[in-house]
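TL;DR need structure tokens for one chain.
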Amino acid sequence: MAMAERRIIVGVTGASGQALALETLRALREAGVATHLVASEVAIELMEHETGVQRDGLEAMADIVHDDADLFAPISSGSFRTMGMIVVPCSMATLAEIANGISKTLLVRAADVCLKERRKLVLVARETPLSLVHIENMARATRAGAVVLPPVITTYSRPETLEDMVRHIVGKALDQFDVEHRLYRRWE
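>> reply
TL;DR here they are.
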């Protein structure tokens, strides 16, 4: 992929785990991957509540920011080439919309474009416990081509802090795109 196309869409929804979005944007910038951010309004509110980071702080971490209501943004078209998209964290409501092709917002439309263009779509699905509806939507999204990557804690890397666990999860997501990083210690 040409350097101009070394870009990933980062979708942020209103699910708990907003630190995952911040670390994803930071790690992608460090890896030299351009980011196109689209965040829901609930994500913006929850970001401030969970992390203290306000809208301008989140948006400053991305290369390009898109309004979730702007269905005419470049990322809504398959002709706009990307490495794919990561939705982090991904609410169960957003996962249901993606799994069922309900594209009422730019975030979900961009995910739908990744599926139709056979680009990588990683959904860091955040909820526990899971209902059968959640599990069926995860299966449907997986059959459509998405990778469902719940933020499951790790122990083999011997995390000492919450930040260690966040970095591990983000590293596992970036592995899906073959983005080099040093976010966690690999098994040897």
